[in-house]
Specification:
Layout lengths: L2 H123 L3 H30 L9
């Protein structure tokens, strides 16, 4: 090969080298741009990961608080069920005692009281002294009967057998 051919071959090689160098420089710049983008994206991902971790931690704490509150509500509801049951039983007992009280009041108290009132009316209109003495004896009997009923009711009340006003 002569010098001219060598020079031409060298020139072709140099052009090829320059093109490859240009391509490599462009590729290098492109890679640098992509590397910067990847770094930015990686930083963004790390920031989001931290944000997600913080959110996850908040959710964990909130979940624990909700579980604690749920347990407290369940315990409160169980307690309320027991309380309602106890109060219902107490109300039923008081209602039963109230029925006894109203029976005593309507039958045992009312009968002697009605007799007393009737005998007093008779005394008011009757002028016969013998009849009045007889009526006074019956008044005493009815008054004693009424007194016995009232004393019996008082004993029951003192024993706590009748409901007292409460709550």
């Amino acid at each position: 090969m002569n010098h001219h051919e060598e020079s031409k071959a060298f020139e072709l090689l140099k052009e090829k080298f320059d093109r490859h160098e240009k391509i490599l420089v462009q590729a290098y710049h492109s890679l640098k741009i992509k590397e910067k983008e990847l770094i930015r994206l990686n930083q963004e991902l790390q920031a989001r990961e931290i944000e997600l971790y913080e959110i996850n931690e908040e959710l964990r704490v909130t979940n624990e608080e909700l579980q604690t509150a749920n347990e407290e509500i369940k315990a409160h509801n169980d307690n309320l069920d027991d309380l309602v049951k106890m109060r219902s039983e107490r109300i039923e007992e008081q209602l039963s005692l109230f029925h006894k009280y109203t029976h005593i009041n309507s039958h045992e108290v009312r009968a002697p009281l009605a007799r007393l009132l009737g005998l007093l009316n008779l005394l008011e209109y009757d002028n016969d002294k013998t009849e009045a003495i007889s009526l006074i004896g019956k008044l005493k009997e009815s008054a004693k009967e009424l007194d016995d009923v009232v004393r019996n009711m008082n004993r029951l009340l003192e024993k706590g057998a009748f409901p007292k006003v409460s709550d």
